[in-house]
Amino acid sequence: MARTAQIRIALLERVLGGLEHIAERRGRAQTAPAHLTTGLAGEDAAFFYLRRKGYTVVARRWSSGDVPGDVDLIAWQGAMLCFIEVKTRTARDMTPAETAVDSHKRAILRRLARRYTRQLPQTAMPSVRFDVISVYLVPGEKREFMHFEAAFGWSEYERRE
């Protein structure tokens, strides 16, 4: 990725952080429960992480309207369409964040991915991959990302690569 694109992404990330800080100081920050605020912060961090890696993010928090649930991020990596679940933690404990993507959540993501791909204007279905990104936003430490590409497939019985 070109150096100017990297600089632009870093600048956008800082501006977003600055605007959130100003809103907090003025008492106009969103008053959501702490776990939702943490999740949104992790999704924002994962968005910029993927942009720095050259992904083209086309949707954030996408839902179909008639199927329950949402997809945190949908992005293209070249010709590969990636459906990405983001799990955020503010502390490192015994269980890694990615273990929260259980069979129920995987089934929801598959259902939403089918719905999303059907509404694409292409006649042939693109190659699809399901990723999980664990984001650790531990206070006083640098952000840490663990990106599991092809974390699971279209069925529970499909082998991972």
Characterization of the model:
The protein is of the alpha+beta class and 161 residues long. The chain is built from 3 helices and 5 strands, in the order H-H-E-E-E-H-E-E. A 5-stranded mixed sheet has the order 1-2-3-4-5. The longest helix has 23 residues.
Tell me briefly what this model is.
This protein is an alpha+beta fold and 161 residues long. The model has no long low-confidence stretch (mean pLDDT 87). It starts with a helix and ends in a 9-residue tail after the last strand.
Key attributes of the depicted protein:
161 residues, 5 strands, 2 domains, Trna Endonuclease, Chain: A, domain 1, alpha+beta, globular
Write the layout of secondary structure elements.
Blueprint (H helix, E strand, L loop, with lengths): L2 H23 L8 H19 L3 E7 L8 E7 L2 E10 L13 H16 L8 E10 L7 E9 L9
Parallel strand pairs: 3-4
Antiparallel strand pairs: 1-2, 2-3, 4-5
